[in-house]
Amino acid sequence: MCSLYVGVLMLMIGGILSLIFEKSEKMAGLFSIVFGAFAAFFIFSFIKIPLMTDKTITDILNMSMPIGIVRIEVDGLSAFFIMLIIVLAFIAMLYSHGYFLHFYNKGMSCGKHFFFFNILIVSMILVVSVRNAIAFLILWEIMSISSFFVMSFHHNAEDMREVAIKYIIAMHVGAFFLIVAFLIAGIEGGTFDFEGIERVMKAGGVLAQVVFFLFFIGFAFKIGLIPFHTWLPYAYPAAPGGTAALMAGVMKAVGVYCLLRIVGLSGRPEVWSGYVILAISVGSAVFGILTAISHNDVKKVLSFSSVENAGIIGIAIAAGMLGLAYDLPEMAFFGFAGALFHVLNHAIFKGLLFFGINSVYTQVYTTDMDKLGGVIKKMPMTAYLFLVGSLAIVGLPPFNGFISKFLIYNSFFIITSQKAAGLLMGVSVLTLAMLALTGALALAAFTKTFGTVFLGEPRNNKIVFKSESNAWMTFPMLVLSLMCLFIGLCPHGVTIMLRGPLKSMGVPYYEHNLETATMVSGVFLIFIFMLALVLFIKFLVLKNKKIQKAATWGCGYGAVSNKMQYTGASFSEPLTRLSKPVLSMDNNIKKPNGLFPVKALSYSVKAGDLIERLFIDKLWHAFRWLLDRFSWIQSGYTGHYLLYILLTIVAMAIAAMWRLGL
Amino acid sequence: MMDAAVRYVLMIVVALLMPGLINKVKALWGGRQGASILQPIYDICRLFHKSQVISETTSPIFRVAPSINLVASLCAGLVVPVAGKESLIYFNGDFVFFAYILALGRFFTVLGALDTGSSFEGMGASREVTFSALIEPAFFIIMGAMAMLTGYTSFSQIFSLIPGLLQNIKINDAGVSIAELIRLWAHSELLVAAVCGNIVFLIMILVEASRLPVDDPTTHLELTMIHEVMVLDNSGIDLAFIQWASALKIGMLGTLIVALILPAALYMWSAVMLYLFLMLLVAITIGSIESVMARLRMTHVPQFVLGASSIALIVLAILLLGHKQ
Amino acid sequence: MLLNDVAVVIFGASLTYILGTSRLGAYVKILSVQGVLLFFSAISHAETLGFFHSVFIAFETLIVKATIIPLFIFFIIKDLGINREVEAYIDNFISVIVAILIVIGSFTVAAIMKNVGQDSNIDVLTMGVSISAVIIGLFIMISRKKLITHVMGYLVLENGIFLLSLALATDVPIIVEMGVLLDVFIGLFLMGIFINRIQSTFDSADISELTRLTD
Amino acid sequence: MMGIEFILIVIPALFAGYSFFFRYFRTDRIVLVVCAVIHLTLTMLLSQKTVPTEGVMFGIDSLSFVFLLILSVLFLATAVYSIDFIRQMHESGHYNVLYVPALLLFLAAMTGVIVSRNLGLIWVFIEATTLASATLIYHYKTKESLEAVWKYLFICSIGIALAFIAVILMLEASRSIKGIGLNVDMLIKNANSLSPLWLTIAFVFALIGYGTKMGLAPMHTWLPDAHSQAPSPASALFSGALLNCAFLAILRYYQIIVNTDMGQFARTLFLVLGLFSIFLSSVYVYRIVNYKRKLAYSSIEHVGILATGIGLGGFAIYAAMLHAICHSLAKHLMFLNAGNIFHAYKTINIKNIHGAYRSLPSTAWLIMIGTIALLGFPPFGTFISKFLILEQMIVNGRWVTMVVFILLVTVISYGLLKAAIQMAFLSEKDAEGHTVEKEHMTTLLPQWFFLGLLLCLGLYIPQWLNNLLYNAAALLLGKGGV
Fold first, then answer.
1. Between D371 and B293, residue with greater pLDDT
2. Mean pLDDT, chain B, whole residue set
3. Per-residue confidence (pLDDT) for residue C54, from 0 to 100
4. Model confidence pLDDT, tens digit, residues C47-63
5. Residue B176's pLDDT is what?
6. In angstroms, what separates the C-alpha of A289 from chain C's closest C-alpha?
7. Does residue D373 contact residue D416 with C-beta atoms inside 8 Å?
8. pLDDT (0 to 100) of residue A598
9. What is the average pLDDT across C119-143?
10. D169 touches C at CB < 8 Å
């Protein structure tokens, strides 16, 4: 336990030193990195025992009044997530340092950024280790608030105010669900230790269901499941440097951890709760990716793809719960294993993708697909690494995304050989189809992203590229890409780490069932070998031939301009037209008028978020409308004010008399 | 193992013949002599000898895309059971791998198209991802339903079992009364599953390999094309790879169709002969469809493709009903 | 007790009258009269009061309430040249009806309280009038436009409270008596000062000027 | 009679007299700080004797010690802050010589309210606070401040008149028992012998009368006007200390009534008014652009939370005590920040303020973190108190109340956070236009100190404070421990 504390302390020291050396901006980042490295070392040396064995390390801290006795416990599940947090956080730290090299002397304080960044990391590490409701809530909110400050680094950006308020209010509302859930569990269970939750959940009944769904909603805010995701497409794009990666990958993972923890404490879940979560998750996956396709800002695409991946993780968790509920241990195993694996993978490739697009952003200060293009020629390294991320996130072989998706697929068809309920079978098949659809749509989304941003030519002539990003930025991306490839080719490296987490959730572990994953990675090797062979043949064939360079064939039309390239919006048009009912698209057409129109026709499409528009905005407007009905109270007339007092006297006097029994 | 490898090679060869066969069938329907069945192979060979012209706009992605597409198709073939026996490689859930490795090929084809910066190729790419996304659920529903029916989850096992189960249904060779037939159909969900599955696979061929009525590989009117328009800028060996990969897709999906109806447990040679015969039937069917149907309007294609999903859903419904009994 | 009853009845009548009149001068006069009436009412309880207390009450009612305050208000009106008209949001006729309703309601409440409290000490008449005075004081402030009428409404309210303490016939400690005096002084003089300021700042002492601060 | 309590009242009054007669701004600053330090020291001396002798005029119990402590600390902060504030005013040429005497008198009156153990005396001192604070509100002598002070005086006078009725009725209630008078301890002791009718009505009038001063809706109407017009250090004291004093006055009546059968009724009234206050605050807090008015409405919300806490009973009373401390600290620091903003931007209209991160970095961070602390986000003390109040709601099974409470609190959070973000963040257009203003150390120190205290309260409440709060809550715990 000691080395965990030392690690946390190191992070804090790093943060505080960054704050102190705020003025010399370069030092701030370096301090963070150095102490982050120490912290990573200590924390690694600590978590390897609970992660690799079944051992649980517990420590009891006796705090004073508001918090009380805090049990800090690191079991397999916690250790898995601590590992994820510290690895990604350290990589993000490196990247952030490189990113901020572009923002020195621009009035932004990198020192403060690193301070809150480190606090964010610390709070995440502690959130997954504490077993006390109050301490948990405090840390949870510190996580939200520090991420809020980290995120609002670019506070001069256009719509940053809107984004910031949306983010923090969403977090606030989410936290209230958790507060209520923890309170009910604490009061009914008799203690604010997690034992109380376990007691309530295992007792079952309506109360347990209510508590579970309150927890689910509270965590769904962080994970980003619909309809609680609305903050997410604003927050991630606004976040600077490595923070977007940390928020999208790691903070989401913390939410998933919490959900898994609650599931782990609940014993056998109800069947219907599994189905509800499955429905929400499938909805998130399909809605998320469809909306992602409709957007033309790369960061928005990545954010909505996060909603999609949240859905996929949710599907996996739902599969696990259904497995437990129906007594199908293998399904449960694949579900939870898939969820854990996919969380890890998502953190890796989403981090990679955000790093990539932020690198582009540091060069051209835009992430709008309709302006970008041909980035691969100026920033080849970034482009290829982004390509790896895209392939991985779509789940294409031979990268890691496929492995985790494969496990999730497995959880649904593993029941074929067992006697499962008809409903479950039908739902499983449909879920398979939806997962497949999600994958295919993700392909559309990421071919669109990569194709329009990195390939072709710039769509706007004003875009001027300077150079490839610095090594502080490309190195972390390289590391993450190698991780993608390594996990894809050698999933065993991760699957051995799933044993501890699953054991601590009380889910059986079937080592032999993971052999399929190894099998798949074997086929990947064949693929790579064949690819090498084919490329070699091609090289031999073309060796003595002269390769001509020419302009792209313009179908006989000579005056081809960059602006004629297919844009993101046009690329996704067939799909957005088909899925119009679930999208929010604003079409702006300015028709030319008059016989001799001066202005040409202009047509633009602006994508939004249907759920936000239909659900959140409407709700908020209704509530505001209701509140506005009372805005006459403060009229400014003293007479009115006195009338209120008089009426209060009368009302209270009547109440008093009534109460006294007159 | 050796046996499976031979079958794999057999499938690749048959696949290379498929486009030629289909074209021949179309020519015959049109009352023409038509080109030789081997014409596509000649084309590929010829392209191997040619040099390349590459757009200045492109990046290395454009140059590796066709190779990756080809290798992806070849890899996908590894899990396809040919002629009634297990495939070269099989594992639980290999159909997921099959779908995703094909998607990898598609991913790079689309990127290659976008890399040229041509709006025509972008258009094709856009349509490609749309229609392939729509066909994907159908494939998974049909495979999932069949997996549920049979209790197995790999191509080889599912397809070896379904025909076997079909054979177990006792049909009086002489006279089957209509009532008996209806009873059979109603109770032999596998038969319906097989038929529906084949229809879905057929639609998949039409979509994936860009055939009529979804796409017309013969015209070069850019606005109506999907697949062909994406490869406008490819030449030489890359084009050869692309055509090969395209033929492979037809071949593999055709093999799947055949596998559904090919009775298992036949002797090696009879199985192969039957396989070749059935592949010919598939080619004739596709050719006939192409000959008698007009190309659909681009806006109607999604309905057609989604039809596959609804057919797949029928299989699912049958599965659920059957489960109740 | 007759003296008390008569004084209180006249006090009650003055409350109705104050809502019926539309002259500021009448307001001031009624305030003065009310001070005298309060003196009589208090004197009727004299047997329970000590010497010092009696002197204090006499000072409070006759000197302060009946003389100084009306003079002070009169001085303000004159000094500021305030229009002699009482401007009201509510018509005088309706105001009188409201006053009658308030009086009826107050007597009902007083009667109920006597019943429930089973407290023979409660003098329903005085109690009813005092409650009416409090509420009518508030009503004056609510329905009249001029700041100076607000102040006078406040004074009516204070008189009501004074009467209430008599109605309960409690031996009010001297500290409380001093408190009420403090209240009146602070209220009156601070308000007087500020009315002056308001008049000079806004060129009007009308309450409708003071509606800038609103949301 | 001449206990420390009495000295506590007298000393500020004496200093006020000194300042009033000598009228020199340099000594004024020293006087203010010295007086604050003395006040705090004396308060600390009192910490050991928190059980008052029965029947005394001035005394301290745990409950009043909590409030005295808040007042003392807050006043010290105001005094420190005023060092630079007075200098600024002096330089800009409109230093009001009544500022320091009024502040000190205000302190004396508030101390009087807190240490008095006689309902009549409490009433007198509450009246006295009005006098002192009216001067402070009229500090800038604008039309708006004139209107504000008029409304303040007028409405509070009505309120105090109503509170006086409560005093009279309390006398009536205790008539059957000889020699009690208005002493709080005696009244509590004999609560059950008091006439329930008069006691209840007395409580209702006290609630409305002092509630006016405290800012409970719908009697709160003067509050946004007055708080927004006073100079910031004084506004800070209004919101942080004055409201607490009025609250304490109500609690004195509550202490009596809670020991009778009418305790539940009193709690219901608290709950209704409390929730209505929160509701009213949520109606306004997001629509206004004047930042100080916004903070004033936030005070109404917090007053509502205090009342809700008392109304819920049980552990929520402890929460209310904690909340009183936390809110005072948080609101005080927010008003001081508003002072800094006003000094730099010469406006308090949110729409005209942006880029504070650039031009007033420390203040901007104070506003951001202070808002978070004020709204009850962890790890600050306000979170704990809100958490405990929610806990009590669940224990009592008040689900609807809880949902409404959460909804309204969220709206308020939205309003305040939006304002903070609006002011702190740089806008795209004027990215280069801001110069960094110099911030004086004394205008930041109190706020950072308070933030530290709030952080401490949220993570670790020291044992002595915990005991103090428990004892204070125990005083308000009526029959049957609810």
1. D371
2. 81
3. 78
4. 666 777 778 888 888 88
5. 44
6. 44
7. no
8. 77
9. 87
10. yes
* Contact by Cβ (8 Å): D409, D323: no
Predicted-complex ipTM score: 0.89
Residue C4 in tokens: 């008390």
Would you give the DSSP letter of residue B53? E
Cβ atoms of residues A13 and A38 within 8 Å: no
Give burial (CB, 10 Å; 0-12/13-18/19+) of C58.
middle
* CA dihedral angle for residue A593, residue A596, residue A599, residue A601, rounded to 10 degrees: 60
Other CB atoms within 10 Å distance of the CB of residue A613: 13
Domain ranges of chain A: 268-368+379-505, 584-630, 632-662
Q: Which of D351, D346, D359 is nearest to D433 (CA)?
A: D359
Q: Is A595 exposed, middle or buried (0-12, 13-18, 19+ CB in 10 A)?
A: exposed
CA distance to partner chain D, nearest, from residue C178 (Å): 9
Q: Which segments of chain D have a pLDDT < 70?
A: 1-2, 428-435, 479-482
Contacts of A637 in chain C (CB under 8 A): 207-208, 211
Torsion of CA D289, D291, D297, D303, to 10 degrees: 160
Helices then strands (H, E): number in chain D?
Answer: 20, 0
For residues B58-65, give the mean pLDDT: 89
Alpha-carbon distances of B134 from B140, B206, B298, B308, B310, rounded to whole Å: 11, 13, 14, 9, 11
pLDDT tens, D116-160? 988 888 998 998 898 888 888 988 888 888 889 888 988 998 999
Which of A631, A641, A646 is the mutation pick for testing C, counting most C CBs within 10 A?
Answer: A646
Q: Where are the alpha helices (DSSP H) in D116-183?
A: 119-137, 143-173
pLDDT at B264: 54
Structure tokens at A527: 């693929």
The whole-angstrom distance between B172's CA and the closest CA on chain A is: 32
The A residues from 405 to 444 touching B (CB cutoff 8 Å) are 405-406, 409-410, 412-414, 416-417, 422, 425-426, 428-430, 432-437, 439-441, 443-444
Nearest to A660 among D197, D368, D457 (CB): D197
- Give the tens place of pLDDT for each residue, B262-284: 655 556 777 788 888 889 999 99
Alpha helices in A128-266 (DSSP H): 133-151, 160-189, 194-203, 205-223, 232-238, 241-245, 252-266
Cβ-count burial of D397 within 10 angstroms (0-12 exposed, 13-18 middle, 19+ buried)?
Answer: exposed
Which distant-in-sequence residues (6+ apart) come within 8 Å of C159 by Cβ? Answer: C11, C31, C34, C35, C38, C65, C133, C137
Per-residue pLDDT at C51: 75
Q: Are A55 and A49 in contact (CB under 8 A)?
A: yes
Hey, how many other C-beta atoms are within 10 angstroms of the C-beta on A655?
Answer: 16
Q: What's the mean pLDDT when you consider all of chain C?
A: 83
pLDDT in tens, D236-292: 999 999 999 999 999 999 999 998 888 889 999 999 999 999 999 999 998 888 999
In terms of Cα–Cα distance, which of D305, D398, D300 is closest to A180?
D398
Residues of C in contact with A646 (CB under 8 A): 135, 138-139, 142
Strand ranges (E), A382-480: none
Q: How far apart, in whole angstroms, are the C-alpha atoms of residue D85 and residue D231?
A: 9
- Residue ranges, chain A, pLDDT below 50: none
Matching residue, tokens 């003055």 = C14
- Phi and psi at residue D461, to the nearest 5°: -90, 120
Q: Name which residue leads in pLDDT, C83 or D425.
A: D425
* Percentage of the residues of chain B whose pLDDT score is greater than 70: 85
Residues in chain C: 215
Tokens read off for D290: 């004047």
| Chain position carrying tokens 């009342």 | D307
